[in-house]
Amino acid sequence: MRNLALLNTEHVLFAHCNVTATAVDLDDGSLWIASERLNADADLEIEIYKQKSGEASSETAIDWPAPPVAMFTSAASHSVPDSASQVVSLRIVSEEQSLVVITRGGDIATMKVDEQESTFDVVGSVEDGLMAAAWSPDDSLLALVTGDGKLIIMTPTFDVLHEAPLHTDDFGEDAPINVGWGSKQTQFHGSLGKAAAQAASTSIAAPIGSSPDDDTLPRISWRGDGTLFAVSSLSRVPPSSPDVETPLRRRVLRIYSRDGSLQSTSEPVAGLEHPISWRPSGNLIVGTQRFGTFRGAGQGKEGRHDVVFFEKNGLRHGEFGLRRASSKPAGKLDGSGKSWEYKVREVCWSSDSNVLAVWIEEDSGDVVQLWTMGNYHWYLKHEVAATSTGTQPARFTSVSWHPENALQLLLTTKTQVIHRTYHWDTYVSRAQAPNDTGTVAVIDGASILLTPFRTQNVPPPMSSFQLSLQPPDSAAHRTLATPIHVSFSPSEDVVAVLWETGRFEIWKLATRIGPGRGPIMTPTKLGSGTIETLEVPSSQRFRQISVWTSPALFETEGIFARVALLGYSSEGSDVLRIVVLGHERITELKAPLLESVGWGFGASDELITCHRAGNVYEVDLTSNELVLHADFGKDCESVQTIQEPSHHPSSPFTHVIGITSSGTLMYSSSSPSSTPRTLSTKANSFVISDDLVIFTTTLHEAHFISFGTLSSADVEDGAGGIKGERRRVERGSRIVTAVSSAMSLVLQMPRGNLETINPRPMVMKVVRRDIDALRYGKAFLACRKHRIDLNVLFDHDPALFRSNLHLFIEQVEDVDYINLFLTSIGNGTQTQSVIAELCDAIRIQLETRDLKKYVNSILTAYVVKRPPDLKAGLQVLLRLRDTEPSIVEDAVKYIIFLVDADTLFDVALGMYDFSLVLMIAQHAQKDPREYLPFLRELRALETHYQHFRIDDHLKRYESALRNLNLAGSDHFEEAMTYVERHQLYESALSIWSESDHLKTVLSLYGDWLFERRDFRQAAAVFIEAERNSKAMVAYEKALMWRELFELALHEKTEEDDLIAMGYRVAEDLTSKKRYLEASQVLLDYSKDIREAVIALVQGNAFSEARRIIVLRSRSELLEEIVHPGTLETRAQIAEELHEIRDQLRKQTARLRELRVRKVEEPDAFYGTEDTALHNVDVMTDVSQFTAFTRYTVAPSTASRTSKRSSRSKRKMERKVGSGRKGTIDEEEYLLKSITKLMVRFSTAQADDASNLIPQLLQFTPAHRDEARSLQQELTELEQEVARSLDDAWPKPSEDVEGEEPQDSWASRMAEKEKDREQAVKNILRPDLRGTEVWRMRLLDVTSGRKVADESQLVATEVEG
């Protein structure tokens, strides 16, 4: 659906020259031009000119004053047609930095292009001349065909690699093998037998020859990858015989490999001509074929001329018919040998293989046709006519494509070099909703293919309507049939067509939007004209047109259109012409002068918008000036603007979108503070629909961004892009058009087929607009059609929906639609209260309007609540049961469809209405044998007991218990059994709270709590039930000894029982390490001082034990119990300190070892790989150790990635926390373990040592020595612990940030290591408690005095 639009033209005039060849230097972008002439001695003189990049501006036509760079003389070949150039090849060989000229006379001359004074050096010459020459695409090989029919392959230094005769009878290395399938010899001939199969055929094959237009010269064309090349040449002249006519020569196509070996030969093709071009992509070889009545012609209609395709094996592969550039009839064969008024000179492919140029030589002048293929159809997209200032027909001398710029065409005439740059453009209607038709125009020769995508999606090459055009030739210009540009009016269904000569036509399409019979379009021509009638110089050419037909733009009556044309003139600048069309006249308006080149029209609503070099201007017709709208800073191929109302109606706000040739999509606006924003750097197409910017990217995604988002300050999405929605599209998709009214986006695939989608953003725009306009019915149907959640009707504006709920019911009156909406509400994200409120509001509206009609919707409103109100829904059926039995029957069927039948049966049964139960059971097709006996049994029961049985069946146990109570006191025992069975104790308490059976219920409840070991609650219940003995047992089990003994004393328990009870309670308290409480019980109730002291010593409460001993005058217990107890505690603390010291030393040593390895062997510690592998895309399974290996328990040879379940995640966390040796988490584990050790050490210091050391100090000398040694051990261990903490938690150093990793893999690894290091740093260093808590200074003093006494004693002994 795309068209070739002319973007740029460059004319360079070479006065008094005969330009025949050009060559592009890709290194500096310069163009080398060859001009040839014959001197007086009939020798060939060649002049070489150089046009540097930028010397000639876009679309200028200037005289070329520079002298030739170099020139040389060569022998001319007089055996070629006069129309053929003497320069066979002109090429820049980049590696050699030389310009190579090959002439038909046989000379090969080179010239260094990097020297100031360049001269040609003839490096070789072929005596028989050179008929064809072609360089491989990489300039590594040169293929030549000599005048005596030899094929030569040379290197860039002109060393011969291969030389062989061109004409041979061999097919080639890829000759097919014929096994005879389908031939006459393999057919069944019935009674004629085998002889008929072997008989010679009597049919005479038609002669195969070449076209009379063949120039007899060979051609060479390379494939794009340089591995193969094709040679087209006439076959050798067969030996003549007097019995036959003059023998025919035919064109033969041969395919060779790089080394010159013949691969295949084409099949014989009658009427095959000399043009040949191998498509760079490599799948097709292009030639042309004539049909007619001449001898050797192809069998076909007279005048038929095809472009034919060959495969690399020489077999035909499709064709398409050429179209005459002019409308004159074909001529007849005359005696001079001239048969037609035109012939094909050459064909050539663009470098991207998308455009085929066909050079046609007509009697009236040369024309180059540009063809493209889409969906297996060939479109004639453009025609370029040669221009001439003389009376002779204008001729091209060469036609070629730029080797890198895919859509830049290089044309030469004798005195001109023409650069024409094209780009792909889609001609689409820009009318806004509701009048948008989505019409797309495709140029195909003299026809415009029109398809309105709002109503029809016709796949190309077909179309909804074909508009045929045939402009008349003007006196000053030859007008070709193919138009150069098409434009649609932004306000009406009007299209403008432009030809390059300035001819234009305005058509009203009258597209049928709605459904109906008849043609989809009925076009009528509103007007036409030629810009020449406005006294425009004949040298002007036009390339773009824009048309506006809105009546609001015209103040003069009778004016129906304003047309702007953009072109170029011979004066070296672009030209802008603006005219208004009336029914009887064409009037030109004054337009601003464009003093530069490279201008283009931008699509706009009302204003004439032009852009150049990234600047977007508005044409102010009042002041005749260009007003700057936006500055993108980059040259854009396509620009589109859209206006929206602002606070000042006189100056509407304008949004501007532009896309560059490299795919950069940019946004700006008319706001003075606006700065250009890059929306994407990978865009390949875009369109504006309503207030959405829609574009596709080379990443196969479609993006949808609203202008509101673009206008806001915060547009970044956090990932380097613009906020907006996106969706995946098929690979290579491009936007054709977006139809707002149909909520559709039309995409075209690379092959040419179309796909229409309805993107959610476009649908939501229309739905929201309809909701705001209270068009709920239309919005509902759109959501239903495109499967949009119907909750949007409410969520978009809840207050508006509530206030206009009656409009919603009126517009969406269909019961099924309302049911669908209610179902969506029930499944929505609103809270239960909102859903209930909305359902009730709709239900009330429906009941008010027509209860009978909307009974199903009313039931739906009850069902979709959370939880469903099925009882209320069934009550609606009960209201209608007597008056409308048929409606109720249908409603029952419907509610059974919504809700499970068994659930409805249970709800109806819970309503105690057996008729409703029977009705639901019958319509649910339940087996009567399943429910009838049960219902009969229930009917026979008393009412309350019947309700009890129903509630029990429905597992409504609390209600069943209440009904059982109402059934009478005779059922009390059954009720208590029911309470125990279903644990309904609290309900039973509330039911029998005022009855005489309360204590019975309390006793049952207390027993149940006691069995569940909830002794505390059970004791309280037993007290309430006045079962004190049971309460005492519960208190004892709960170790609530204070309440127990209070109750025991209140119950006057005997002394012996009280003592025994005290021993039992004390034993249980001791087992729970509640030593102080146990000693208190033993003293107060068991009267056992000895056991009380033992309990205190076990709990390290030495001070309390000594107090009790003194208080109760039991001094013997001090030496008997306390002294041994303190020494035993001293031994336990020593053992604990020894364990702490051993574990601390091991873990500190391991931690130190790990940190040394981290510094000295980082590869072994982190698992870091060679940085040279960071850019490798695929890692092999040979690698046994990667940077991720240390994060697992064991290395693996292959990466296994899968989703982890919650169970496996917990298992992995346990593995990470285990700190197994060799894992990456070992360091973190060691630090956490040391932290736990510090907690144990602090407990030993503060709790145990602080209680024990003062006691040891007051006992025997042996105890004092133990106190001194314990304090010494604690001091030494404390110092060691402090040193270990300093090693484990070194002082933080300043981090030095290094270079960021080069790729994403290294970045992830660095991030992982940072997280791990941060986890280690987050482990806080534990603090040691002060020595004041446990240390006894008296021991320090006595220890120093004892050491001094011992030293003095030793000295005395030595003296003695």
What does this structure look like?
It is a single chain. With 1360 residues, this protein is α+β, with helices and mostly antiparallel strands. The protein is built from 34 helices and 56 strands. The chain has a five-stranded mixed sheet with strand order 5-1-29-28-27, with no helix packed on it. The chain has a four-stranded antiparallel sheet with strand order 2-3-4-6, with no helix packed on it. It has a four-stranded antiparallel sheet with strand order 7-8-9-10, with no helix packed on it. Helix 20 runs antiparallel to helix 21 and helix 25 (1075-1086) packs antiparallel against helix 26 (1089-1098).
Notable characteristics:
1360 residues, 34 helices, elongated, 4-stranded antiparallel sheet, 33% helix, alpha+beta, 5-stranded mixed sheet, disordered C terminus
SSE topology:
Layout: E1 3-13, E2 19-24, E3 31-38, E4 44-51, E5 61-63, E6 70-74, E7 87-93, E8 98-103, E9 107-112, E10 121-125, E11 130-135, E12 142-146, E13 150-154, E14 160-165, H1 193-198, E15 219-222, E16 228-234, E17 251-257, E18 262-265, E19 277-278, E20 285-290, E21 305-310, E22 316-321, E23 342-349, E24 355-362, E25 365-374, E26 377-385, E27 398-401, E28 408-412, E29 416-425, E30 427-428, E31 439-444, E32 447-452, E33 465-468, E34 485-488, E35 494-498, E36 503-508, E37 524-530, E38 541-548, E39 559-568, E40 574-582, E41 586-589, E42 600-602, E43 609-612, E44 615-620, E45 625-631, E46 638-644, E47 653-659, E48 665-669, E49 677-680, E50 683-689, E51 692-697, E52 701-706, H2 707-711, E53 725-728, E54 734-739, E55 744-748, E56 754-757, H3 760-772, H4 776-785, H5 792-795, H6 798-803, H7 805-811, H8 815-826, H9 832-850, H10 855-863, H11 870-881, H12 885-898, H13 901-910, H14 914-923, H15 928-939, H16 943-953, H17 957-966, H18 972-982, H19 985-991, H20 998-1011, H21 1015-1024, H22 1028-1037, H23 1041-1050, H24 1055-1071, ...
Parallel strand pairs: 1-5
Antiparallel strand pairs: 1-29, 2-3, 3-4, 4-6, 7-8, 8-9, 9-10, 11-12, 12-13, 13-14, 15-16, 16-17, 17-18, 19-20, 20-21, 21-22, 23-24, 24-25, 25-26, 27-28, 28-29, 30-31, 31-32, 32-33, 34-35, 35-36, 36-37, 38-39, 39-40, 40-41, 42-43, 43-44, 44-45, 46-47, 47-48, 48-49, 50-51, 51-52, 52-53, 54-55, ...
Helix pairs in contact: 3-4, 8-10, 9-10, 10-11, 10-12, 11-12, 13-14, 16-17, 17-18, 19-20, 20-21, 21-22, 22-23, 24-25, 25-26, 26-27, 26-28, 27-28, 28-31, 28-32, 31-32
